[in-house]
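subagent[fold] <- orchestrator: predict structure for attached chain, return tokens only, no commentary.
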Amino acid sequence: MRILKLPEPEQNRVNKEKVRKAQALEKIREIHGDLPTLQFPRISLDRAYFSIFSKDIFRHIYKGKDRYLDKYDQNRIDNMVQELRAQGFQKVNFDLPERKDMKYRKDVFNDYPQFKQNIVDHKGHGTGLHFKLCDFEDEVISWITISMREPHMAVAYVNFQKYYRYLNDIPKPTIGNFDTNFLPVEMDNKEKIFDDFAKLFITWCREIEVIYKHKMYELFEYELDPEKTEVIPISIEIPCEYLHRDIAEFAWLSDVAYCKSVVKHSDLTRTMYFNKNLKSQRFQMKLYQKAFGLARMEVTVHKDWASHFFCGDDPAILKDKIKMCIDAVLAEYRLSLYDIKPVEMTYSRFLGQLASALDWDRDMLLMIIESKNSEFRFSRENQSLQKKLIKADLIEREKPNSKNWIKTDFARWLSSQLGGYFICPHCRTYMVKSDKSLEYVCSSCGYSKKMI
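subagent[fold] -> orchestrator:
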């Protein structure tokens, strides 16, 4: 596989950026001390999709003709790769060399009925062969689908979170609010995890190139040159996770982020989407509670944003590119890793004492208090969480034998007393309800705001 090297100007920019960030971080530490900021999340990778294509395939399609070597055709092939990087291959309007020679391989397709699957390729909706590559925890976490239309482009998928757990024998998490697509909170060696995922990305790209090459020979008897095979990222999720934090501590971001819309969910995840489904953007950001004690900011990049930042075969450089990617996305919302910090809950000390007295998990208690949802449903993926909440007497059935669960009277009382907040515009701390008047009062500077 030909993994692109960074051009010298880009490499110089990476080096300068590294120095700039180190200097800025030192300044932040002088000002804030040990106060955590978004500079210190646990960064990894999650679900990712790739386009795979070999420029060498035209040699086989033309079956000995010399025409595929013409400079005119080679230029079109190179332009085709650039278009793939910018747009992905779905319905891309590029001009294939010798288009009249491109055909649909029905003969091969009919030999593998067990692998048939629909696919969207360069000409639109079609059919291909789908191969499962890795099963883990009753889920296919890696696969490849090859189009039967020449030049046989492919789509590949991997769930890096579960693939990492699969390779390292990491137990299945039991505290997920929705799924188990995350690493345990106890894994707090952030630098090692970031380094591991950068290496895993490069290794997986090489592995999928070998698999594609093998499948092309198995299906069509094409021997492909690995130097002419392109593995192009088309969509990648980048989790930035804050350990032992609640999303309520970052809720103020919805007030300052520069975007057209913020969509908030009221379930246990309390997801906040920034510009959800805005098709003109090649990126998206959301914040949500992945599990109690695990607040996640998830950055997703598509098409040219993905292919631009995820390139190179040096893990150290890839890590810097990923950080630049996060910076670039946050900059679109006029946010920065360097000046966003979690705001400590005003009732944090009381909450810790209460959790200790009742022998409960503090993060679980905080999650229930800040959740505005009055009704919960659970699945097989988060049954462990359901059992913990029942044992702590924080949820109960809405009706006997009902599948719906609601907060207990005690949980609702805690939410009414501690949930709901305003942020002081002067010192950026949470304001609490006054016992004497209908006001929220800042416990740090005394600033007050009327409730109505």
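orchestrator: received. Logging for downstream: Residues 8-332 form one domain. The chain has 13 helices and 17 strands.
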